[in-house]
Amino acid sequence: MDLKGLIPIVSKSEKKISSFNCRKHNDNVTVDSIQ
Question: Whole-prediction pTM value?
Answer without folding.
Answer: 0.34
